[in-house]
TrEMBL record:
<comment type="similarity">
    <text>Belongs to the short-chain dehydrogenases/reductases (SDR) family.</text>
</comment>
<dbReference type="InterPro" id="IPR002347">
    <property type="entry name" value="SDR_fam"/>
</dbReference>
<keyword id="KW-0521">NADP</keyword>
<dbReference type="Pfam" id="PF00106">
    <property type="entry name" value="adh_short"/>
</dbReference>
<protein>
    <submittedName>
        <fullName>Retinol dehydrogenase 11</fullName>
    </submittedName>
</protein>
<keyword id="KW-0560">Oxidoreductase</keyword>
<dbReference type="InterPro" id="IPR036291">
    <property type="entry name" value="NAD(P)-bd_dom_sf"/>
</dbReference>
Amino acid sequence: MRPAFRPQDIPDLSGKVFFITGGTAGLGAATALELAKQNAARIYISGRNAQAASSVIEQIRSVSKTNVTFIKCDLASLSSVKDAATDFLSKETRLDVLLCSAGIMATDPGLTRDGYEIQFGTNHLGHAMLIRHLLPLLQATSDDREGGVDARIVILTSLGFKMAAFGTSGILFDELKTTQDKGFMWSWFRYGQSKLANLLYAKELARRYPGITSVSIHPGVIRTGLVEGMGAVKRWFVYVSNVGKMVSLEEGAYNSLWATTTSKEKVANGAFYEPVGKLGGLDSRAKDEGLAGELWEWTQKVLDEYDS
C-alpha cells in the first residue's frame, strides 16, 4: 500500500526560505536535507555546534544546490536567541517557514542562563523569543503572497504534553524560575509542561496572527540523540512505553515536512497534528483557551524584560 506521505510528494520549493532550529542534528537535519532535495532557495539551520552544522551542510551540498547557512543559537539563552535573530535578519528579506524543531527531553533539574526551568526555558521561551523577532518578516512574506503556500510557523511538540503534572493546570507559572526538582518523575512532568506550552503557543499565535499559519506537530517516537543521550532507566521507560511505535529518523521527519510544505487548504491554523498530517487528540488542558492566553501574557512579560 502506498504510504499517505512520502518526501517525494513535496512540491517544488524554488524561491522559498526556511529557518530550522536544531537543524544541526536529528530531526532538524533530516528535515533540512529533504527540503533541500526539493529545491528550497535557502535554508538556515541553527544550533550550538558549528562542527555538526558543517557536517550537515556538506551532506546537503552533496545532493542539492540549495544554499544552507548556519546561525549560532543557544535556546537556553535569550540574548543568544536575539543575536541569532539579528544575524538572520541581516541576511534575509523573506521567510516562508520557521520550523521550531530543537528541544530537550526529561533532563536533570537545571536553569537556563536567564534563570528559568531548563526544559521550559529551552523548549518554549527560547523559541518564543525567536518567533517574536521573526514575526514581522513572516508577516511581510505572507502579505506579498498571491495564492500558494502561506508563511508558516511549525512548532514541534509531543504527546508528552499529556504528562504535564497531573492535578494542575499543566503549567506551574509560579515555579518557572525554579528547577522544579521534586523527584524522578518530575523530569517527565517538566518535559510535559514545556510541550504543552509549545502546543498552546501555536494555537495562540494562530488566533492573534491569522495571516500566518501556525501549527504544532508530534513527530512520533524516534531514536534520536534525545533518547540515546538519556540514562539507562529513562531510556528503558521510553522503549518499554513505546514498544512497536518507534520509527526511524527519516520517518520522524515526515510530519515536519508535511506541515511545512503541504497546501494551505490541508492545514487548519492553530491545530495539533500527529504523524502524518492527522489531527491529534487534545485533553482538557490542551483545549484550555484561558491557559493559552495566560501563557501568552506571561511569555510576553518575560520577553519584554529582555527586549527593553
